[in-house]
Amino acid sequence: MTLEFYPLRFSLVARERVRFPAGKAANTLRGALGHSFRKLACRPDCESARRCEYRVECDYARFFEPFAAGEGPSGLSDWPRPFVLRAWHLDGQSFERNATFDFSLHLFAVRDPAVLRLVEAIAAMARAGFGPARGRAEMASVTGMAIQTLSLLPRREASRVAIRFLTPTELKSGGGLASTPEFPVLFARIRDRLSILRALYGDGPLDIDFAAEAERARDIRMVRCDTERVRLERRSSRTGITHSLGGFTGEAEYEGDLTGFLPYLEAAQWTGVGRQTVWGKGEIEVRCRN
Question: pTM for the complete prediction?
Fold first, then answer.
């Protein structure tokens, strides 16, 4: 079993002062990219990708408003977006004219990627300007245009793993949200996200015994938890609705037979985990301590 994706990385040069709000760099880029992509991909009279008769062929709909015509995997009607942005290092940063900055976009729609259209949209986004001051930039380079393949099979033994939650993370658990990243909950959310991304955009859902894996995950102990709650919000300029960008950040350490789980944890470094990953939430870093 594998996970395939494009590890795209974009380098931009500021042509005016470009500023990113604290804690909202990825969401700022996502909003600007969505606006740019829609202008390039949609008909001028299109009011909603959901109601558009051309939505099946529309690159914008596949990237920013994907949804099932019938019932999707696990009963999903709204599909997860086929990409995540990686820009937390830009949070609260400003770049003066001619300064260079970069960000990454991991694209999981490898069967029908529209990579060139995506690159075109990001170049147009840069020229139009983004951020609170609508600072303009120019795309200098893009790398990662070849598909990367990660194996989800065990490759090395692991008995102690530390996970750093780089951006606010929220994990659904028992009808609510987990207050701490206990391993069974964390693994379940990683497993489900990988399976759904593969089902919608890759080679099909994970071919594993979900119940057996969940039972094994209960044997993994969280031996250290240094996390804190971050409170942050965003307001949609399109709908006016306020959404939480918050969650916990920090680090947790786990102990037990992690050999079979390690490939999933490492894959989650690319996919993110938890709610609202497309807004930049749920980015993690994994370190094997044994």
Answer: 0.90
